[in-house]
Amino acid sequence: MEPTVTILVAEDEAMIALDYEHALTDAGFTVIVVASGTKAIRLLNEDSSVQGIVTDIRFAEPPDGWEVGRAARRIDAGIPVVYVSGHAAADWPEKGVPNSIMLEKPFAMAQLVTAIAQLLNDRPPREI
């Protein structure tokens, strides 16, 4: 059996986070959910098993999702990053990391699964 891919979901709205978690788990991913940018960055620094990120842009307090994406890329230059937002999509070209995907709320859960899968498939193999 192949090892599962671990996706970090950073989303502060519990019901939305649960929807993302169910969609990604149903697609075969292992999912870790955190409710803030601070917790996401802490986890990225502590857990090398994370292989992709889905992050909201706006949290109740800093850091925002843009910073989560940048922090992830400092740790792993090729990690897939999917941003989700209802308001910040226009800022993505300027603030998002290269080779990331922006999903505007509302979107179908299939779009989330497709976005993370596409980025994982496009990623070069990791050096071990």
Question: Mind telling me which CATH architecture this is?
Answer: 3-Layer(aba) Sandwich
CATH superfamily: Response regulator
Unreliable residue runs: none
Apparent shape:
globular
Descriptive notes:
With 128 residues, the chain is of the alpha/beta class. It has five helices and five strands. It has helices at 14-26, 37-46, 65-75, 92-95, 109-122, and strands at residues 6-10, 30-34, 50-56, 81-85, 101-104. The protein has a five-stranded parallel β-sheet, sandwiched between helices. Strand 3, helix 3 (65-75) and strand 4 (81-85) form a beta-alpha-beta unit. Helix 1 (14-26) packs across helix 5 (109-122). The radius of gyration is 13 Å and the shape is globular.
Itemize the secondary structure elements and their pairings:
Layout: E1 6-10, H1 14-26, E2 30-34, H2 37-46, E3 50-56, H3 65-75, E4 81-85, H4 92-95, E5 101-104, H5 109-122
Parallel strand pairs: 1-2, 1-3, 3-4, 4-5
Helix pairs in contact: 1-5, 2-3
